[in-house]
Amino acid sequence: MNKLDTNYKNTWCPGCGNFGILAAFKKAIEDEDLSKIVITTGIGCHAKLADYINVNSFYSLHGRSIPAAEGIKLANPELKVIVFTGDGDSLDEGISHLIHAAKRNTDITVILHNNRLFALTTGQFTAVSPDNFKGKSTPMGSPESPINPLELLLASNATFIARSYSGNIKHLEEIIKRAISHKGFSIVEVLDPCVSFFNTAELYNKNTYVISDNNLDSREEALKKIREWNYEEIDQKIPLGIFYEIQKKPYFERALISKKEETVEQILEELI
Ligand SMILES: Cc1ncc(C[n+]2csc(CCOP(=O)(O)OP(=O)(O)O)c2C)c(N)n1
Ligand code: SF4
Q1: SS3 for 106?
Q2: Which of 83, 84, 89, 221 keeps 20 to 30 A from 21, CA to CA?
Q3: Nearest Cα residue to 29 out of 177, 174, 166
Q4: Count of CB atoms within 10 A of residue 105's CB?
Q5: For the chain, how many structural domains are there in total?
Q6: Model confidence pLDDT, tens digit, residues 44-96
Q7: Is the minimum distance from the CB of 201 to ligand 2 under 6 angstroms?
C-alpha cells in the first residue's frame, strides 16, 4: 500500500473521471512535506476524494469548500491548502466564495472537478451544463446558456488560471504541481466526465489539445484562449494548459504583514 492510500472502499462508478484526478494529485504531492498539506472538499462525488487519500482533510458543507480553506490558510499560513470542489459546489451553491477568494488573491489552490452537473444527486444541470441540457430537473432541456468559469475568474483577478483533463493524468499532474507552487490564488479547472449522467469523455478525447506557456502575463492572450471553447457540446477545439499567471502579493501578506511592517515569523508568533 502507498503511504497516500487509505482503506476506504471506493464507491465512484467505474470509469469516473475522479479516478484520474485522484491519481494525478497523488503523484503531484508525493515529494511534498505531507504534514504541511491540508485539503478541503465540498459535498458531492468529488468530495469523496478526501476519503481516498491519506492527507489532512476537512469535509465542508455544500458550497463552502473555499471559505473553509481560506480560514485554514489564515490560521496557519505555513500550510499548503488545496480545495477539491465540484461545479455545483463552487459555480452554483458557493459561487460568491470562488469570486471573492480570487479577488483577494488568497494563497490557496482550487481544483474544480468540472463534470458539468450535480452528479451525486443524479444529474441536475449546473451553471456550466450546455444549453438545452436534459437532466433530472430539466427533462425538457434547460433553457439557459452556460457561463465560462475561467472568464469569470480572469475578471475576478485570479492570478493563476489553468485547465486540464482527468483523462490526461500526466498533464494534470504537472499543472497541479505548478498551481500548488504558485503564491496566490490558483484555479485548475479539470474536465471530468461523469460516465453515469453526462459522459463527455469521447468529446474531450477528440477535441482537447495542450497549449504551450506563452505570454502568461497577458490578459488579452488569456481571454482569447479561454474563449476558444464556450462549454457547448459542439465540435470546438478545447485548449488545456496554463492560460494566465502573474505574481502579486497574496491576501495574508497584504492584509497583515504590509500594514504592520513585520515578517511572517513575527506575525505568526503573535497569532499562535
Ligand atoms: C446546502 C445543500 N444543498 C443541497 C445539497 C444536496 N446535494 C448533495 S451533493 C449535491 C450535488 C453536488 O454536485 P457537485 O458539487 O457538482 O459535485 P459532484 O457530485 O458533481 O462531484 C447536492 C445538490 C446539500 N447536501 N447541501
Ligand atoms: S455519478 Fe458520475 S461523478 Fe459520481 S461517481 Fe459516478 S461517474 Fe463519477
Answers
A1: coil
A2: 221
A3: 177
A4: 24
A5: 1
A6: 999 999 999 999 999 999 999 999 999 999 999 999 999 999 999 999 999 99
A7: no
Report the CATH number that the domain containing residue 167 is assigned in CATH. 3.40.50.970
Between CA 216 and CA 204 the distance in angstroms is 24
The string of DSSP codes covering 2-65 is: -TT--SPPP-SPTT-THHHHHHHHHHHHTTS-GGGEEEEE-SSTGGGGGGGS-SEEEE--TT-H
Strand partners, 89: none
Residues 204-247: tens digit of each pLDDT: 999 999 999 999 999 999 999 999 999 997 789 999 999 999 99
Which set of grid coordinates corresponds to residue 267? 506575525
* Alpha-carbon span 132 to 137, nearest angstrom: 12
| CA neighbor of 95 nearest in space, from 71, 123, 65, 74 | 65
Indicate whether 253 belongs to any domain.
no
For residue 166, give the ligand nearest its CA.
2
Mutate to test the pocket of ligand 1, among 62, 129, 198 (most ligand atoms within 8 A of CB): 62
For residue 190, the enclosing domain spans 18-247
> How far is the centre of ligand 2, averaged over its atoms, from the C-alpha of 119 (Å)?
6
> 227 is written with which cell numbers?
474563449
User: Domain for residue 44, yes or no?
Assistant: yes
**Residue 107, helix vs strand vs coil:** coil
Q: How far is the CA of 150 from the centre of ligand 1 (A)?
A: 21
Distance CA 119, CA 231 (A): 17
Neighbouring CB atoms inside 10 A of 145's CB total 14
